[in-house]
Design a protein that fits this description.
It is a single chain. Helices cover 0% and strands 62% of the residues. It is mostly beta strands and 150 residues long. The chain has a single domain, classed as Immunoglobulin-like (Sandwich), CATH 2.60.40.2550. Strands 4, 6, 7, 10, 12 and 13 form a six-stranded mixed beta sheet that branches. Strands 1-5-11 form a three-stranded antiparallel beta sheet, with no helix packed on it. Strands 2-3 form a two-stranded antiparallel sheet. A hairpin with a 5-residue loop joins strand 6 and strand 7. It is elongated and about 55 Å long. The N terminus is likely disordered.
């Protein structure tokens, strides 16, 4: 278990993710490398598929979810810009969640699909999406940005 409590998360990177009827649907899932001809580069779409595992004993409580991107030196990177704010950076994706249970299972699964369009990547190296619940990082999704010679 983590400092965030008994909540855990399974996660993956994909080209696109959606959540329908309590299930995740992914296209191009299971990668950890972005090859590009030059930097900076704009990534068309990056999907994050999350399965939050909430023990039935913890059901009903409200929790804070945050997704942030960290660069090769651990620095926090913007996920995009808010057009109506004149280009203010989006530092993270946040939201709250709570699950209810009927007591028939030991844990409830909460599928979460996040798609980021036009993510600007400026440097080679290992980048990490950090998934936090209630202020504690509980999962990282590392991926490498590298130049190719084509």
């Amino acid at each position: 278990m983590t400092a965030a409590g008994p909540i855990s998360v399974d996660a993956f990177l994909a080209d696109s993710v959606s959540s329908e009827e309590g299930k995740l649907h992914a296209q191009g899932a299971g990668w950890n490398r972005i090859l590009t001809a030059g930097l900076p580069t704009l990534q068309g779409r990056i999907g994050l598929g999350l399965l939050l595992r909430v023990p039935a004993a913890g059901a009903g409580a409200e929790h804070q979810l945050e997704i942030a991107l960290h660069g090769p030196d651990g620095e926090r990177l913007p996920l995009g810009v808010v057009a109506e704010d004149g280009g203010a950076p989006i530092e993270s994706v946040t939201g709250t969640f709570a699950v209810e249970t009927d007591g028939a299972v030991e844990e409830e699964l909460l599928p979460v699909a996040i798609n980021l369009d036009g993510l600007r990547l400026e440097r080679e190296g290992i980048h990490r999406f950090v998934v936090s619940v209630d202020g504690a990082a509980i999962r990282t999704l590392p991926f490498t940005v590298a130049l190719h010679d084509d």
